[in-house]
Amino acid sequence: MLIKTPSILFDINVPSYVSESLDVISQVFIESFSRTEQTVSMESPTQKLIFRNELSKFRSNVQEFYRNVQVNVQKPDELGQYLTHINRSQQETTFNKNAALYRLYDQIKPYTDEILDDMSICQETSRLQLNKKLNDIFSMMEE
Q1: Where do the Plexin cytoplasmic RasGAP domain residues begin and end (predicted)?
Q2: Is 25 inside a domain boundary?
Q3: Domain of 110?
C-alpha cells in the first residue's frame, strides 16, 4: 500500500504518470511474496512479463525468508517471558516530563532564531501568533 500510494505517509504529490508505475511496482512486489508459483504466458499481465526474471529471484528470497522464520520460531513461553520482562522494566521506569521537555529544548536551542523566523514568515503561524508564544516559552526555559 505504501509503495502504491506514498502520499499516505509522506507529504508529496504523485503525478499520474508516476502513480501508474507505482501500481505496477506494487503488484510485482505483492506477487513476489506469493508462495505459489505462477505461470507466465503471453496472456499474462504486462508487469509479469516485464519482471518475470526478477519475480523468480524475489520469490526464491521470500521462500528462504519463510523457511528461516519457520526454523527460528520462538517457543510460546520464551516470548511470554520476554514480554513479561519488558513489561516489568517499563513499569519500573518513570517518565519525567520536565526532563524530557528540557532535553527537547536543548535540541532545538541552536535553531531558535531560524524556527522563529520561519514561523513569522508563515501566514498561518503568524495569524495564531505562534512565534511570539514559542519565544515566550524559550524565554521561560532560559530562566
Answers
A1: 2-115
A2: yes
A3: 96-142
